[in-house]
Specification:
By secondary structure, this protein is mostly helical. The protein is 86% helix and 0% strand.
Length: 109
Amino acid sequence: MSNLEANAAGRSQVDGATAAFGLAAAITILFNTLLAWVKDAYDPLNTFMASLTGHHWRTHGIADVIVFLVLGFVFLSQGVKLDGVRLAVYLAGSCIIAGGGLALWFVLV
């Protein structure tokens, strides 16, 4: 292994908390999109979420934070390990999928 390969491999490692909460962020991004689709398509859920905090988007944000924190701590306790490149791919991929999904949803609906 060359010095360049060794340095690249060493730089790509992330610590446990970064891996855990990075993966939680990627999943939460997808959850956020799914929840937006479901509450937009199913008005009783939208109304229920609005009744909890005064506005459905406020409840939506709280749900996202809860999902992020719960998943992050679960992954942290399980010792999830990811390298930085894989984590970046997961985050970028979830953003692309979620952004495209929301854009397509609002174009079609």
